[in-house]
Amino acid sequence: xxxxxxxxxxxGVVDFVLVDLMLYLDTHPYDCKAMEYFNHYSxxxxxxxxxxxxxxxxxxxxxxxxxxxxxxxxAPLPWEGGCR
Amino acid sequence: xxxxxxxxxxxxxxxxxxxxxxxxxxxxYGGPDGEMGASMRYLSQRYSMPYREVAxxxxxxxxxxxxxxxxxxxxxxxxxxxxxxxxxxxYGFDKYYVDHTIGVWPQAAGGVPFNACEFQVKGDIITDLTxxxxxxxxxxxxxxxILRLIKEPDVCEPIKFLRAREIVHFQRFGEAxxxxxxxxxxRNFYAFNPGFDRCESCECKCDKM
Lengths: 84, 209
Ligand SMILES: [Fe+2]
Description:
The complex is a heterodimer. Chain A has one domain (3-80).
């Protein structure tokens, strides 16, 4: 796995933790322990996404700031898969 | 994948319930030219698009249509949430009410349920983009028809916003079609389907001319 692929994979892992914690917290809104987990991984996820977006391509429009070319439009599409 | 933002794209704050209006506006939720069909059309067409720019336009417009779907649902919800039993009967909302109470369900103004046959994914970029341009105009006409039926500014403003967005989308799809044609053979745009045919040159081109 290349570095780009590895980073994307790691973002996926951390984000899945956040999605699952979000669902749990939606029905357990006063569970402090779960909130601590959420806050911890949320910070990691934000940093990882920002780093990935600067290095490779923006993952969301909020990270799509561009100068010479519109980086959001040039980015590979998730359904393209690996090499073909 | 998607992320949800807990806000509307344009504010909706309707003070007076109005069962008659709700029954008309619900067509833009699940009717033939509604936002559900629009979002599903663009998001489904993306996979067979041979060009990244065009797939990107479909992703971003399809995503905005989901925000419009939520706005239309909000309008219907706010127009129906404080209806009295008398109003429900008086304005003919009883037929909808009996099946859905005041929940928001995708149907056309005439009661026809949402159906995927209201849009197409042809797997041919020229065909699909031409449908998309027509779809935006059909939605724009529907909003124009709705605007002739309403006077209330708190309902008019979000509808006017949605109507204006259809015109922007039409423009962007027109540009996407132009970008597509620039990549194809100007002597015969239909020489091959760039989303299906493997070779873009030589034999297969001649065969189809
Ligand atoms: Fe649209």
